[in-house]
């Protein structure tokens, strides 16, 4: 169980970091304002060549590789709830890197989700596999 916890802790930090970097990159690119085919191609070309978007996508890839490993070690009902730790990482990174404000009610929600994860993981050993 410890290796699942460590892998998913790193995975959650990676995906939160990835989402924050993608957001920063998209702030540089600007908002999508038109849906004309050539404008879309240009817009997504700019997004996909932005270094923040590229690095964020790589970090999201790290998340998926660690999730795959975790799913080989534990039940999906144990491994997947660990991804909720991302909310705490994302809030902390959003505050520090994007200067976002996280209101107390949102922090309360994050705490409740993490308490739920603790309850799920403390619920017992893995079920037997056929």
* Structural domains: how many: 1
Oligomeric nature of the chains: single chain
> What shape does the CA trace take?
globular
Strand proportion: under 5%
Instruction: Tell me the helix content.
Output: over 70%
Please compute the radius of gyration using only Cα atoms. Answer: 18 Å
Termini gap? 20 Å
The total strand number stands at: 0
SS summary, helix count: 6
Largest sheet: none
Unreliable parts: none
Q: In terms of structural class, how would the helical and strand content be classed? A: mainly alpha
Question: How do you describe this structure in short?
Answer:
The chain has six helices and no strands.
Report on this structure.
- The protein is mostly helical.
- It has one domain (2-121).
- It has 6 helices and no strands.
- It has helices at 2-29, 37-49, 51-73, 76-79, 85-98, 104-121.
- Helix 5 packs antiparallel against helix 6 (104-121).
- The chain is globular, with a radius of gyration of 18 Å.
Defining traits:
6 helices, globular, about 130 residues, mainly alpha
Topology:
Layout: H1 2-29, H2 37-49, H3 51-73, H4 76-79, H5 85-98, H6 104-121
Helix pairs in contact: 1-3, 1-5, 5-6
